[in-house]
Write a structure and sequence with these properties.
seven-stranded mixed β-sheet; globular
Amino acid sequence: QVQLVESGGGLVQPGGSLRLSCAAPGRIFSRYAMGWYRQAPGKQRELVATFSSGDTAIYADSVKGRFTISRDNAKNTVYLQMNSLRPEDTAVYYCRAGLGPMVYWGQGTQVTVSS
């Protein structure tokens, strides 16, 4: 059983910042594409940001310029720095590790942007 352990969600005011973390087993982190997705109530899960081949990062248009995905290879951890948060960013955020047909998901962490 592969565990992706997320942390860092919470309640923040519009314009604020949060940083999400996702720790993965080393054998997963070194080989799989790591990324972040989110799912708002009543909506489908959608890509937020992910590493594709190597260290190339891909972002959803809605978060470009506000969110940054990064990784610490020594800690087997991927981060999502979220700045200038908006109410529409409210969702459960999931860490994802993917390699071809093999996909693992974290348990999700709630991010709520509200005044």
